[in-house]
Structure formats: C-alpha cells, structure tokens
Description:
Helix content is 61%, strand content 9%. The protein is built from 38 helices and 19 strands.
Amino acid sequence: MFSILRRWGASSSYQRVPGGPEAQKCSPEKSASFFSKMTYSWFSRIIILGYKKPLEREDLFELNESDSSYVICPVFEKQWRKEVLRNQERQKVKASFHKEAHTRKPSLLCALWNTFKFVLIQVALFKVLADILSFTSPLIMKQMIIFCEHRPDFGWSGYGYALALFVVVFLQTLILQQYQRFNILTSAKIKTAVIGLIYKKALFLSNVSRKKFSTGEIINLMSADAQQLMDLTANLNLLWSAPFQILVAVSLLWQELGPAVLAGVAVLVFVIPINALVATRVKKLKKSQTKNKDKQIKLLNEILHGIKILKLYAWEPSYKKKIIEIREQELEIQKSAGYLAVFSMLTLTCIPFLVSLATFGIYFLLDEGNVLTATKVFTSISLFNILRLPLFDLPTVISAVVQARISLGRLEDFLSSEELLPQNIETNYTGDHAIAFTNASFAWDKTGIPVLKDLNIKIPEGALVAVVGQVGSGKSSVLSAILGEMEKLTGVVQRKGSVAYVSQQAWIQNCILQENILFGSIMQKQFYERVLEACALLPDLEQLPNGDQTEIGERTRILVTHNLTLLPQMDLIIVMGSGRVAQMGTYQELLSKTKNLANLLQVFSEQEKAHALEQVSVINSRTILKDQILEQNDRPSLDQGKQFSMKKEKIPIGGVKFSIILKYLRAFGWLWVWLSMATYLGQNLVGIGQNLWLSAWAKEAKHVSEFTEWKQIRSNNLNIYGLLGLMQGLFVCSGAYVLTRGSLAASRTLHAQLLDNVLHLPLQFFETNPIGQIINRFTKDMFIIDMRFHYYLRTWVNCTLDVIGTVLVIVGALPLFILGVIPLVFLYFTIQRYYVASSRQIRRLAGASRSPIISHFSETLLGVSTIRAFAHEQRFIQQNKEVVNENLVCFYNNVISNRWLSVRLEFLGNLMVFFAALLAVLAGDSIDSAIVGLSISYALNITQSLNFWVRKACEIETNAVSIERVCEYENMDKEAPWIMSKRPPSQWPHKGVVEFINYQARYRDDLGLALQDITFQTHGEEKIGIVGRTGAGKSTLSNCLFRILERSGGKIIIDGIDISTIGLHDLRGKLNVIPQDPVLFSGTLQMNLDPLDKYSDSELWEVLELCHLKEFVQSLPRKLLHEISEGGENLSVGQRQLICLARALLRKTKILVLDEATASIDFETDNLVQTTIRKEFSDCTILTIAHRLHSVIDSDRVLVLDSGRIIEFETPRNLICQKGLFFAMLTEAGITQDSGTKK
C-alpha cells in the first residue's frame, strides 16, 4: 500500500537552485501531475528521506516564489501605503464637515483583504465544496438503511450505494485537504506580511513612539499579535461555514423530523447568547493576559541583557521574584479562562445531545403516532454529528475573532504611531560646510521642553570637532540632532554626505566579528588592515577570520568626549551648557578668551598632577585613537574567551524520550492524571451507551404494534437517553475542571524550573547564546505548554478511546469487519511511522528557525540608532525577510507533510467505510437495519477519529519538543549554589585582604589558560591598579574574584576564607563593583538603587548627594519614584554611571572593584566622584581595572598583566624606574614620569 502511494508522485523530481553544492531543493509541486498535487505524492520523497535519516534544513523543499517573504512583504506594504493614503483622505473629508472629526486609524484588515482577497476566495470555494460533500454521506447512508429495511430483489443497488459512499468520502478528503493546505499557508503569508511591516515600522519610530512601545511590547506584537491574525485567518471561513452547515443540517433534519427540529434550533438560539457572554469575558481576560505577557517579555529582555549586573550584585532572587509575580498573574487569568473552558466543553459535547433530546421529545409530543425508525434515528444522528463540528468551531472562531480584534487594535496603534520626520534634517545639502545648524532648537518630542536651544554651528568639511560639557549639558543630544534622531522645533539643520556613527554604548550584533566590522560594506583589504591596526584588534583576530571595510575618504569627525587630553588635536571645539552652545572655537581661541574651558582644563590638570596635556600635544592623532580603543576594549569576550562564538540553536534528532512526557505528567500531578483518565473513559462509555440505546430503541419501533404500553415505553426510553446525556455532561465538566487544575500545575512548575535554571547558568552561556533563543523558550515554548500540550494529550486520549469504542461497536455488529480492520491498522501504523520520523524533525527545524527571528528583531531594536545613522535600514529589512523566509520554508514543509498524512489516513478510513457498507449489503436479511445504521454511522466517524488519533500522537511528540527545550537547561553546567551550608561571618570581610595563590583559570575546557600562576596579596585598605594590554587578563581577574569564572587551579582567599568554599551570593553580596557599562532597569529610580528594599529613603538621598545627583533627582516630579525607561534611555549615560556609583555607596563593603567607572562622565564630575570614592571608600581595598592609565597613576601599587601572567607588581614610581611594560604603556599613552605617581 505504501509503495503504491509512494509511486503516485514518482515522476516528480526536484531541481536545485543555482549556486553550487550548498544550494537547496526547489519544490517539485509546480511540475507535479494533477493527481500527485491532489494527493501530495510529490512530497513522498521527503517523507522517505526523513524515515531513513534525520532531516536537515538543506533536505527541505524551498518555497514557491509566490509564497516567499521576498514577494509577500513588498506587495502588502504597497497595499498598506494605499490604505494610509485613503485614510488621510477620509479624515480630510470628515474634517471639512465637522470641526472635531474623530481620528480613525488606517485599517490593517482592509490592507490584508486587498492583498490576499483572491487566494481567500479560492480557499472559500474549496470549503463550500467540502461542506456540500459532507452532507452527501448521511443521505447515501439513509438510502442504504432503507435498502436494508426493504431488501428489494435487485441487490446491485446496495453495492452501488456502498461504492457511491466511498467515492463521496474520498472526494471530500481530497477537496478538504486542498482547503486546509491553501488556508493554512495563506494564514502564514498574512503573519509574514504583518511581521515584515512591524519590523520596518520599528526602524523608523520616533522617540515618543519608542517610549510608548517598549522592546518587549514590540517583540510581543511580532510574536503574539501576528500569530493571533494567523489563527483568525485559519478560522476565517468558519464565520460563514459554521452557520451554513447549521442551516443545511437543520433543513435536512426538518425533512426527517418535521417541525420538531425547531425545538433543537431553540436550544441553539438559547446557547449562542451564553457563548457570546463567555466570549466577552474571554476577551477581557485575553486583553489582561496580553499586558502581562508584554510585561514579562520586557522584564526578561532587560534581565538577560543586564545578566552580568544581576550576577555581580547577587540580585537574581529579587528579579526572579518579579518575574514570578507577573507569571502568577498570568496563571490566575489562565485559570479563569480554564474554568470558562469548562462551560465551553459542556456546550460543545452536550449541545448535540440537548438538540437531539429536545427534537425527539417534541417529535413524540407532536403526534403519538410518531415513531423513531432506524432511518430517522441514524440519519438524524449523522446530521447531529455534522452539526457538532460547526458548534465546536463557533467558540474557537469567536475566541479567534475576539483576540484578533484586540491584536488588530494593538497593531494599528503601533503601525499608526509617529515616525521620525525626514525633514528634521536636510541631507541633500551641497554648501561649504559638512554640518550646519541655523537657529535650531530640538526636543525629544514635538510637545516637549527643548533640550537643545538656538544652535548656530558651522562645521567645516574634514574638521576634527570635540563636543564637551558637564553631565546633562546636551553633548550626546547634539549628535542625536545631527543624526535626525530628535524632533526639530525651529531652525534649519543641513548635513552633507554619508555618516559613520559610534554610539556611546557599543552595539554588537549576534554574528562573527568580521560581519560586525563589515556591516554591509565591501572589502578593501589594505585599508581594512590599517583600520584593524588603529583599533588594536590584530592580536584578537589571530584566531578569527578577517573582516571587511570600505575605503573612506576625507571625513568630518565629531567626538562627544570627556577626555580633555584630545582637545589640542581638535580643529573645532563646542562647549555645551544647559542645552545651548556656551562657547565655540579652536583650542587656543577658547583657552585665551573664556574661563569655561580653562576651568575644565584646570580640573583635569589637578587630577593628572602634571604634564599630560603638554605631552599629548606632541603625539599623533592615530596613536591617540589607537590608545583609547586599545584600553577600552578589554572585555571577557575578547580576552582568553575571544574564541567564543554565538552558538546556533541545537536541534535534537530522533524520537522524543518518554522521560520528557513523564516530566510533564509529574508536573501535571499524578492525581490529576488518573482523574482525567477516569473522566474521559466515563465520557466515552456513556457516549457509546447513548448510541446503543438509540439502536435498541429503533429496533423496538419495528414492533410498536406488539406493545400495549408503547407510550410509557417511549417515555422511559427518552428518560434513559436524557439520563445518559446528563451523565456525559457531568463527566465532561469534571474532565475539563481536572484538566485545568493539572495544566496550571504543570505550567507553574515548568516555568519556575526554566527561570531557576536560566538564572543559575554561568555568564559565559549568555555571551555565546543569542538572547532570542532564551526568550523563545519563555514565549513560544511556554505558550505551547500553557495552552496546547494538555489539549493535544486530552484529544489523543479521547481519540484513542473513541477509536477503540468504534471498532468494538462495528465488530460487534459486523464480526467480519475485523478481517478488514487488521490489514488497515497495519497500514495505519506503517504510514504513521514514516510520517512521525519526518514530521518530528521538520517541527524541530521550524522551532529552531523561530529563534533567529526574535534575536534579529531584538538586536535591531537595540541598535536602531546605528542602523539609521549608517542608512542601512533596507539591508536590515532584507535580513529580516531572510530569517522569516527560513521559518516559512520549515512551516511550508510541515503543512505539506500534514496534508500528505491526512490524505493517506483518510483514504484508509474511507476504505473502512466502504468495507462496513459492503458487509452490510452482503449480510442480507441476517442483520437488522438499526445495526446497519449504527455500524455505518460509526464507520463514517472513524475516518476523522483515526486521522485525529495519528495526528495528535504526532502533535504530542512534536510539541513535546517544547518541553524538551524548556527542560534543556536543566542538564547544563550551572554556577555554584547561591547559598551553601558553610557561610561566612556577617562582618566578613573585615580587613579587605585579597590573596591569589597559584591561581589558574580558563574560559572553556578546550581553551588555554586565561590566567596562569597568579600569586599576589593585597594589604587591607590598599589601592591596587590592574593594567595590561588587550587580552592580558585584567577583566578575567575581576571575573575570577566574583567567581563569574571558576578556577582551574589554585585559590583565592579573602580575609582568611577560601571563596570557593562559600555560596556565590555570600561572596558577591560582600563585594562591591562599579562596572564600566552602566546598566539600569525599567522601574523606579528607588528600585534601581535598592532592588532588595534594604535601605531607608534617607540613606538613598545621602548617597545621591555624594554622587552629585541629589539636585537632579529633587527636580524630578516624582523624585525617587521617577520612572526609568527601558535601559535607562531617559537619562544620559553619565547620569546612569552616577546611579551605578550610588548603588556601590549603598553597599559599602570592604572590597571595591572599579572597572573604569568614570569613563562616561565629564572631568569636573569625575574629579568630584574620585574625591567621593577616596573619602567614602578610604577604609576599603580598591581594585581598579584600568583602561585609561591615568586612573591608576596614584594607586598604592600597580599589577601589570601580560598573556594571563603577572609581569610586574610594584608602586607606580618603582615601575617607571624599572622601565618595563608599564613604562612602555605610559609612553604610548603620552603620560610622563612625573604625572602624579606615588613612590
């Protein structure tokens, strides 16, 4: 059988896309024969290949061109633009008639309809044909029952009915599967189109819109709301199909039972408003749930981006608690929705019964002579079973419409939100200057307070310009204005040529280093090598591939800087103050005519103690740039860990282990598991009992004349039928309740385990795995666990019981049926075995292909300013199409594999129907017509039941991959426990003595040592500077102190305690750090300072004063409760750094690690901060990781590292006298011997 099915498409061959051995398979669908297309035999090649070996991405067929994102997105964008223009015209017309016209947003639904209307009409036609054929089967069955009741002499008509029944159900199978194929793929196209539009819109959002829509909310729009539109499209035809089927079913029932059918219609009319009320409640719950999901994704995104800070400060429990609080709100809503589902399940199962009960009861009341014959009973039951499907679909469709309305509103709000205006800046300027401001004022939003006022700046071509000023003076805002990132309120801004932009906070994409350097440009190798040398990246690229960079001609360079040593090299200096240009001119002009610059220089000079400025003036600018980048790029990922690379998501192969299902069942709770099984068994047994009772009732009807008390018997039969229905309703309610309780327990347990596992993973994991992969587990995978997996399990159990019951009933009626069932069951399992092997792997590929979509979207939102500055929007839009297209390829192959299975399974089911009908004809007078009706009606149902049974078995296995992915982190290497049995004294450390003894560390087992034989000891309250070239191991040393990186040998002792013997939180909670990157989280200022809520308000105000932030915070309307936006974007980087300093002052431990903590603040503030640190941490041991050498020049001792070893460890004065590596580094940096060194 399988080989015959395989040969249906044997003539179809695939071609390869030009491009060499890496090219992938084109879909052979277009060249396949009509029969092969209808039966999907052209796909058999993939099914067989998947059975022989685990499928890989290159094994899958490519999309048809019309189904790809490259075609779909531009067509839809064109229709959306037309809709936007039409809406603008409508608003103009309304405004002409009404003074205050209601603002209406462009309709996303209209744009979607105009894009996909022809394919949607095609899908609707398939659905019409399938629905018509579904009503033909009961009519043919009716004729067969009549035939068996009367047995005419010409028996060939019975064979004709059996054959006709087979032909009709087979045609229905073919047409229905075409409908499913086009319907599901069209819904995927709509999702693709919407994602493309969301991505493009996100690239052009204004600052006001970015504040309105957080990163988490935008990602949720792409993942959840676009999915809701896809779900609506998949169910769209049910909006008219369900009423159509109900109408036809009622019409046919009228022919059987007359006006009595109106009683059934009355039951339907009564239930529909109740369903509407339920749908309204569900709508409110869904809206609340969407907000909670937005909050969770937003917080997760921040936690994962700031995971290093959380680990350094031991804040994981605090943020874990915040996530769990949001999760509990989600689960409460999920519980309410689950209890509403109890009612939905009750109506779904019991409405057909209630309709039949009401109809039969009224049928008897209308006329005492009315008798339920086998013809009437089983024709009616078949029609009631057909009626069950639209009644089942209606709640689904209502829910989809409700959720889609919410999603459409959210999407329209986003797509209609304000964009940056291109006219904010003139980019086609051809004048004498590179950049020109004329009376220009700017704000972050049109109605906001001006941040920059009355700017009049002319920057010549080729000039090197510095923008300086104190924290909050508007320096970075000047760059934002040049880039067009701010709203222009007045004046003119003109810019000539293209822009290269280096943001204050580095934005690195999740790709290899060469692609980050390339950034869409073409290689010019000679110039590229000069750039690498200037950036001091050559040592780091020894084991990495070369990058690419285009040749750049004469450039105008604008530096927003706190490093005043660079000022003498500038052609133009702009001094900012309170959002205005305080002074502007060359270095000598400003030095001679103003006190502002002189004051700044004086502060810096005092800090440096001597000749740094004079020395700088004689070294060339290339050395300066090289020195700055060399010293500022010593990061773990480019240290010994430089061989790290972003890992592709691991795709499991082979079957899902039963242990994964057991994990879910354990989380579900064994009590709820066994109760579920009991209720479903009871539900199915009662259902079989109802049909057997109707069959016996129909038998009695033949002998109505023999019963003297027929009216009483009929009443008893109806009562028993009603009692069985009541029992079924109780079982259904109990099953739905038990399922809700168990699924909630499983969701809570698995989410808590996932969150706990993620927070215990080492930092290296987050550096080498895209954040999108992790978020995907909290979103898509948890969604499947929350909403779908328990449904698949329940459906599979019900189908299993249904199939067993159906076979037993038919075999009981027609014993010879077992002869046909055995070979068909063998074929079922053969097809299932082939299908599952392929489908499982395709699903896994599809799951893995979703993560890059989220990762790419997330990193785009983080780097949108850089993308816009380089004018690379179109390149990133193209990249988005590529990652979406990869997911579409997997989805397409998955849809076709499902259709391939359905055609074959339903064909075997059709054979069962034919076999049952044929046996009924062959049985002649030996079988009662009631038994014929019972067996054929059950046989008609078995087609769907068997298909569902196999499909849901596959769904369970393929969706169990989500449980597998959620549990994947469970077996990964974790950090040490947060708290151990051995705990340090509460006052530890009391001296601050740090001792490294023969310490060794490596980032991975397959890498060399990052630190080798490190041995040194600090004194209590000593100030140690740690220096070294890139890759020397400076940051690695601090990571080891916090046990971010664990030892490979040796030990670290702090005040007599080996830090490896205590818990991480006992260690990290007693250390203090001010990191180089100032990471803030969305929430109040108070929460950012004190997330553990340990300190009083007075203590918070005290540290804010010490950090020179008190005046600023007091000026805020809500003061300590001021809301920090995502990533701290509503504060300057300098202000963020000062808040990080305030955190450290609150902790006040005996050991402080400074990682170039003042790199983002001006020198005047830096001087105040350094004074604060010296005063407030005077009794502390301070380890300063130096990226700027002047910051350690006044240290007690300096530790010099090279290649992970200690080269020198002495006082700065002695190191200079030795003229070793430290002296060489000072010379390169332009710092002289007498720059304030300690002896």
